[in-house]
Specification:
The protein has about 400 residues and is of the alpha+beta class. The chain folds into 3 domains: about 110 residues, Arc Repressor Mutant, subunit A (Orthogonal Bundle); about 60 residues, no CATH class; about 160 residues, no CATH class.
Length: about 400
């Protein structure tokens, strides 16, 4: 079988049109795309000029990849494969060969059954066999269903169970019949519909799995993104939230009766803590030295209690705390806040919670107990060394 170029016959070395033109139908190009129309007409011309084989009611032809590259020099192998794939998706071309990047031939047929045994070579130009099929496109039939080939394609290429594909059929038919649109490639539309639904289904399953995992508390537990967003939306400091996580994990990790919704419990816990904390700060802002009989406000014990820190443990820290600051003689704007930080640090240390940080050289170091040093209220509020 000769595969000399059909369309590349030289007319004249001096002609402005040195080659015979490629013909294509403007209406077909408008329907399926310019590149697709050009390749489809080109393949139809090959069918007209070479012996075909009738199989399954279709005229099949195998053509060399080199011939396509020679007669369509403005495309490379990847372009040809892309356009062939598009024609297959649009339901106008059948291909049984491997992708052109891995095959030296293209075995194809136009997706229109023939009444005669085979197509004979012809020197007369003929319109594409599929154009009448495209012009005959219509609305989706009420009893339409995808072919077995399409269902197998979705299962083998995309891992979508056949039962899931069939479950999407009712919605697909209902949607497109209500729209009343005309199409020639309902199978391709069904494929896109199923793929979209399947991706959404997988995303929902992944989200459900993440939610399930977030309800299991361990040393690495962190609140969900949604929980953090809820808290920051009401202007709760992210550092304040981060400081509360180790206490929350420690408390619920030791209990058997864990809440069913850890994230919801964490949100409620932080809101209560923040309300108490801001109330204490609002009423404790005048710098003054500590007195010998200083005692923390009851609100401090409430805040520590919401962090599941035992009140008796906190009371045992008072004497050492007062003695140190009396010897220093510093004036502080919030002794209650400083005491909160002091107790939280010792609580974390006693219960073996992580209290390591980094020095200026980037080396891991173990922080000393919050040696009550003179610092500003801002530093008190942002100090998280007990939970680092």
């Amino acid at each position: 079988m000769s595969w000399a170029p059909v369309y590349n016959t030289r007319m004249s070395e001096t002609s402005l049109l040195p080659e015979r033109q490629l013909a294509f139908s403007p209406s077909l190009a408008q329907t399926i795309g310019l590149e697709e129309a050009i390749l489809l007409h080109h393949l139809d011309g090959a069918l007209c000029h070479h012996q075909t084989q009738l199989r399954g009611g279709y005229a099949w032809l195998s053509i060399p990849r080199s011939w396509l590259l020679e007669t369509l020099p403005f495309w490379d192998t990847a372009d040809l494969q892309r356009i062939c794939h598009s024609l297959v998706d649009k339901g106008v071309l059948l291909v049984e060969s491997q992708p052109l990047q891995h095959s030296n031939t293209l075995l194809f047929a136009l997706n229109q059954r023939l009444a005669h045994t085979a197509r004979k070579p012809s020197t007369q130009p003929t319109p594409p066999a599929v154009e009448s099929r495209l012009r005959g496109a219509g609305t989706l039939p009420a009893l339409w269903s995808p072919s077995d080939d399409m269902l197998q394609l979705l299962t083998l290429n995309h891992g979508i169970p056949r039962q899931y594909c069939e479950q999407q059929l009712e919605d697909f038919v209902l949607y497109w019949r209500e729209r009343g649109e005309i199409s020639h490639a309902w199978e391709n539309k069904f494929r896109q519909h199923v793929l979209s639904r399947w991706r959404n289904h997988q995303q929902h399953e992944a989200e459900a799995f993440r939610q399930q995992q977030s309800d299991v508390i361990d040393a690495n537990w962190q609140p969900s993104h949604d929980a953090l967003e809820i808290l920051t939306r009401v202007d709760i400091s992210r550092q304040f939230i981060a400081d509360a996580i180790p206490e929350f994990v420690l408390y619920w990790g030791e209990r058997k009766d864990k809440p069913k919704a850890l994230n919801a419990s964490f949100v409620a816990h932080i809101k209560r803590q923040w309300a108490k904390f801001t109330a204490v700060m609002a009423n404790d802002t005048d710098p003054q030295p500590i007195s010998a009989n200083w005692q923390p406000r009851n609100d401090v014990y409430d805040i520590l209690g919401m962090s599941h820190i035992d009140a008796d443990f906190a009371r045992k820290q008072i004497a050492e705390f007062v003695m140190y600051w009396m010897e220093r003689g510093d004036a502080q704007s919030s002794w209650n806040t400083r005491f909160l930080q002091h107790v939280k640090y010792h609580w974390a240390k006693t219960h073996h919670m992580p209290i390591t940080g980094q020095d200026n050289g980037g080396q891991q170091t173990t922080r000393k107990a919050i040696s009550p040093r003179a610092r500003s209220l801002e530093q008190d509020l942002t100090d998280r060394s007990w939970a680092d």
